[in-house]
Amino acid sequence: MTHPGEQFYPEGVHWDDPIAQGTLPELLSDAAREFSARPAIEFRDRPISYAELQAMVEVAAAAYLRAGYGKGTSVALFLGNTPDHPTNFFGALKAGARIVHLSPLDGELALSHKLIDSGARVLVTSNLSALLPTALKFLDTGLLDRLIVCEDDRWGKAGTPQAAIPNSPAIVTFVQFIDPCSATAI
């Protein structure tokens, strides 16, 4: 055997199999066509099919384009592991934006550096008390122009501590952000 790791591959998979090519949003669209009703994500006992995820991404992409956050824009994602992440990740990419991943494990200094270095002026976060206060600091210090806040309870109540979303023209909830692009909120 010339490729010893191949013994651990699933049946029918080979080291020289062709690799699917395309953009990440195109690969998601292909998966949604092929596996439409199959679950892509299960979160808080709620399955989300590939077709549902694709529909959420399309709405998010339209909202990003409508807001002018397409090509040439960096969108920072400061999110946990919820369906908000893939929705915004694929949606912003589909709109043509660059993605800046910010880890909730990073300290404020590292996060500030990443925002400055990337040029991201738009940040998507959650109203979780572990995330929103930090994002608000970046807005208050002028590192951001716009804060899009995903509301965690949209995915079902989990009892996770949440922070109040301040009333500010620079802050919009994700549901408000996508509202003009969708007849039904996702």
Overview of the molecule:
The chain is an alpha/beta fold and 186 residues long. The chain has a single domain, classed as 3-Layer(aba) Sandwich (Rossmann fold). 35% of the residues lie in helices and 17% in strands. It has helices at residues 24-34, 50-66, 84-95, 108-118, 132-140, 174-178; strands at 39-43, 46-49, 74-78, 98-101, 122-126, 146-150, 171-173. The strands form 2 sheets. A 5-stranded parallel β-sheet has the order 4-3-5-6-7, with helices on both faces. A two-stranded antiparallel sheet has the order 1-2. It is globular, with a radius of gyration of 18 Å. The mean pLDDT is 93.
Draw up the topology in text:
Layout lengths: L23 H11 L4 E5 L2 E4 H17 L7 E5 L5 H12 L2 E4 L6 H11 L3 E5 L5 H9 L5 E5 L20 E3 H5 L8
Parallel strand pairs: 3-4, 3-5, 5-6, 6-7
Antiparallel strand pairs: 1-2
Give the CA-CA distance, first to last residue: 50 Å
Query: What structural class do the secondary elements suggest?
Result: alpha/beta
What order do the strands of the largest sheet run in, or round the barrel if closed? 4-3-5-6-7
Number of strands: 7
CATH class group:
Alpha Beta
Contiguous low-pLDDT stretches (5 residues minimum) are none
The share of residues in extended strands comes to: 15-25%
Morphology? globular
- How many distinct helices? 6
The helix fraction, in percent, is: 25-40%
State the CATH topology. Rossmann fold
String of helices and strands: HEEHEHEHEHEEH
What is the average per-residue confidence, as pLDDT, rounded to a whole number?
93
Main sheet: strands, sense, barrel: 5 strands, parallel
Determine Rg (CA atoms, Å). 18 Å
